[in-house]
Amino acid sequence: VYLGKKFLSVLRSIQGDDNLQSMIVGTVMRKVKSRTWKKQRYFRLQEDCMTIWYKSKKAGNTHSTFSVSDVEVVREGHQSEVLLSIADEFPPDRCFTLVFRGRRGNLDLVAESAEEAQSWIKGMRKLIENLENMGQKEKLDQWICDWFNKADKNKDGRMNFKEVQDLLKMMNVDMNEHHALRLFTMADKSRSGTLEDDEFVQFYKMLTQREDVLKVFQEYSSDGQKLSVQDLEEFLRHEQLESEGSQQRALELIDQYEPSETAKMLHAMSIDGFLMYLVSPDGSIFNPRHQSVYQDMTQPLSHYFISSSHNTYLLEDQLRGQSSVEGYIRALKRGCRCVEVDCWDGANGEPIVYHGHTFTSKILFKDVITAVGKYAFKVSQYPVILSIENHCSVEQQRTIAHHLSHILGDKLLRTTLDGHIADGLPSPEELKGKILLKGKKIGGLEASLNGAAEESIAGEVSDEDEVADIDEDHPHGDSMRRKGKRLSKELSDCVVYCKSVRFHSFKQSRLHSKFYEISSFTESKARKLIREAGADFVHGLRTDSSNFNPQDMWNVGCQIVALNFQKAGVEMDLNDGLFSHNGRCGYVLKPEFMRSCQRKFEPDNPQDREGYRPVNLSIQAISGQQLPKVNIKEDSIVDPLVRVEIHGVPADQAKQETRYIDNNGFNPIWYETLQFTVHVPQLALVRFVVEDYDKTSKNDFVGQYTLPLSCIQQGYRHIHLLSKDGTSISPSSLFVRVRITDVA
């Protein structure tokens, strides 16, 4: 790894850009939080072209910074609720929004002129694009450059030994002074007592030398210096279990990851190339072939797990949190395919969305639908389900139907696909680009297609049907129950394949339920049904909501397990893990034994299933790389341990952890093997967690990564860790060796 002239030339070309030059000089802009909170801040791009610095215009105030890599996208004009609220005060050509990754709030800004706004919009977009286009090697160069800038406190372009010692603490390295001085002296070729460009790179290279990777490299290298095509082919076949076309594959990997042109000409891979391969997507634990849609998408809708959000409109807690259209945008951009809309009567005949009978703020229904229409198919073309919780009067229900039809247009599914009643649900493939409404319906699908309710203005729905959801979510909601008995025909007609009905029993469902009917359960009722009739639960179309462990519901085939996307934690880690494959399209095909009515599956007794084939999962935790500091105390260094958790059917629920390593978050070494038996691998999720050990209190979370067992690549693999928010904390990673074998 070297701080190459290549990266510096990229830096110079960026700095030659007029927009970026303007950003480096700095600009005064208004930071806007609400219609009444608009304060001037001085913003500028730092010389590293990676950090935005800003502070109040008042002297003496502390400054703040954020990284360009934290920004996901730049929205131009009045494209946030906050900026829309001040649209009468500031024109759209002066306004823009920085949207951050994860759950961090947006930054809404108003520039002094349209020209200044354009400089920041175009400049930020160029920086984001440049970051996205960086190769693995350039990212490492960038990482080194960042550390150099952090360590070079007096900004003289060189580092003395004191600065190096401070750097080691920042990097989570606990190294005694003698060893640090030895590395410093070895790198200081000019004997100047400081490290400059290439000397710092040499120091960094000695610091980051991967003995664990070198050990594997030398095991397969014929001469200890390089891997020939045959050496690499043997490694791929024997260790990575990639037997198909392994010679061609070896040549491709050399061509893609080997930095030395000389080695490439010799069809060989150096240790640097080998490391580049291992930290790349090809060397990741997640199978890159599963990053695109690879499953059969032509099965009925009920044959899929569907990524689903509960209380989608909330950004915070359910009692006093802020309701926001941004909640829908964030959920849809994460691949969510079922969002909840809690509708109530609003002022001026306009329905509103909020968490009823709480202090959460309110937003207009039409604004929610506008956002859904705009963002529904940005990341996935497969259908979106709008789950309407209807508490409105008949008059405002008609307004809801009007907004759905006029705002969504052809995207809203208004009738069956071919105009006829089929004998089952259509597939995600057939419903591409369509938005489906889930809610109450007057009568059945047959009646609405035959025009039986043509003259009706509003219809009665039975007490039982109408209060199904209300009973569950609002046990004391008598007034709502009385208010909500009548349903407008216009809104009823918008419901096609997802008619909400009250659940009575599995027996009644088998005998009388229609394919387009869907039942919802609260967590407590779902758990009771799982205990009483787990096997019966597996067939049918159902939903569930709130943040509990979703795995128990998936185990019994629940399609729509709705989670609070705004709440980070193990539950959302599992949800992100399950839907991380199949192109992150929001639909994951259930295992075959859950789709066939002829096959019986009981989660509590997996060994009774036809085709039962348990596996042994062996994970050797080898090392960690550049784990982030979690304690803000300057002298604190992480004491990391690795925990591996299996989430699946009850017999598969298990966790094991390594010992902790004292004071080393930079390159801890474990070489510990954790073993698991997995009875239903098709449903198992594997969660890797790194924690900072604390003997006096609860361990601190460092990072995690969750994926389906079916997506794991075997062999020597890197696991690229994620934050609590599910965002990348590159270059933090784990290095592991994985083996999956049939139980003898």
TrEMBL record:
Topological type in the membrane: Peripheral membrane protein
Subcellular location: Cytoplasm; Endoplasmic reticulum; Membrane; Nucleus
EC number of the protein: 3.1.4.11
Domain PI-PLC Y-box: 491-595
Annotated C2 domain residues: 595-723
PROSITE patterns xref list: C2 (PS50004), EF_HAND_1 (PS00018), EF_HAND_2 (PS50222), PH_DOMAIN (PS50003), PIPLC_X_DOMAIN (PS50007), PIPLC_Y_DOMAIN (PS50008)
SMART domains with a match to the protein in the record: C2 (SM00239), EFh (SM00054), PH (SM00233), PLCXc (SM00148), PLCYc (SM00149)
Main location: cytoplasm
Pfam families: C2 (PF00168), EF-hand_like (PF09279), PH (PF00169), PI-PLC-X (PF00388), PI-PLC-Y (PF00387)
Span of domain PH: 21-129
Keywords linked to the UniProt accession: Calcium, Cytoplasm, Endoplasmic reticulum, Hydrolase, Lipid degradation, Lipid metabolism, Membrane, Metal-binding, Nucleus, Repeat, Transducer
Biological process per Gene Ontology, one example term: lipid catabolic process
UniProt superkingdom: Eukaryota
Cofactor: Ca(2+)
Catalytic activity: a 1,2-diacyl-sn-glycero-3-phospho-(1D-myo-inositol-4,5-bisphosphate) + H2O = 1D-myo-inositol 1,4,5-trisphosphate + a 1,2-diacyl-sn-glycerol + H(+); a 1,2-diacyl-sn-glycero-3-phospho-(1D-myo-inositol) + H2O = 1D-myo-inositol 1-phosphate + a 1,2-diacyl-sn-glycerol + H(+)
Gene Ontology terms: cellular component: endoplasmic reticulum; nucleus; plasma membrane
Keyword Calcium: yes
Annotated EF-hand domain residues: 139-174, 175-210
The name this protein goes by in its record: Phosphoinositide phospholipase C
Gene label: PLCD4
